[in-house]
Amino acid sequence: MSDVKVLPIPVKMGPMTVMAYALVGDRVVIVDTGVGGQARRILERIAEKGHAPGDVSLILLTHGHGDHVGSAAALREATGAPIALGAGDEEKCVAGVDREMRARGLVGRTLLNMMRRRQAKNGRTAGPEADIIVRGEFPLGDFGVDALAVPMPGHTRGSLAVFTAGGDALVGDLLGGGGRTRSEPKRGVFVCDEAAMDASIRDVIARAPRLTYTGHDEQPFALEQLEAAFVGR
């Protein structure tokens, strides 16, 4: 099977950035899709690497929040690829609201209040129903990509991370969930279970990824940065 290349696709969301990714192997797996209206941009980035919509075999969502699932339905329609989501995030994805989410720190609480005011004013944006519910380790080999999706709860109950055979990790909002590009990794500011988040961060570090890509940081973090930020603290 071909080596897997990670193609970052930054999507602007007001003053913030949300990350979509394409894992390019024998075929293409899209990991997260940004907000609504981004399907064309994502497919254009894939086309720049020589891949057509029909090369997309799977749309994998690291969690069910609207800023990550917003273009999933449009991409499914354009590519014919199924949508996969972690067990526990089905309701929040379809409903467009997460009643379990809590915020850490002043910045997190401010962002959460802003989001909830916006939802109250503009209404909630319903997300797609997933075709595949991931309940345990989920190899992506059948989709043409040498990688493994693994449950990593904490940010949400159904959060997933993806580990490629080449040593990269994509962790969604487990890290860097505040919507800003940082010079060092931080815990996601939105959380449903602090203990689960801590355990998931330890699990990621134990797998020793070469580079770790987050849901809102445009640059990945090296293993040494993760260890400096979290090991021994």
Task: List strands and helices in order, with pairings.
Layout: E1 5-13, E2 16-24, E3 28-31, H1 39-48, E4 56-61, H2 66-69, H3 72-79, E5 83-86, H4 90-95, E6 102-103, H5 105-122, E7 132-134, E8 138-139, E9 147-151, E10 160-164, E11 168-170, E12 190-191, H6 194-206, E13 211-213, E14 221-222, H7 223-230
Parallel strand pairs: 3-4, 4-5, 5-7, 11-13
Antiparallel strand pairs: 1-2, 2-3, 6-12, 8-9, 9-10, 10-11, 13-14
What does this structure look like?
Helices cover 29% and strands 25% of the residues. The protein is α/β, with parallel strands linked by helices and 233 residues long. The strands form 3 sheets. It has a 6-stranded mixed β-sheet. The protein has a 6-stranded mixed β-sheet with strand order 8-9-10-11-13-14. The longest helix has 18 residues, at 105-122. The N and C termini lie far apart (39 Å).
Name the descriptors.
233 residues, alpha/beta, Metallo-beta-lactamase, Chain A, six-stranded mixed sheet, 7 helices, 14 strands, 29% helix, globular
Give me the strand/helix succession. Answer: EEEHEHHEHEHEEEEEEHEEH
- Could you give the distance between the termini? 39 Å
Q: The biggest beta sheet, please?
A: 6 strands, mixed
Query: Strand percentage, roughly?
Result: 25-35%
Estimated radius of gyration: 16 Å
Structural class: alpha/beta
Q: Helicity range of the residues? A: 25-40%
The count of DSSP E runs of length 2 or more, i.e. the number of strands, is 14
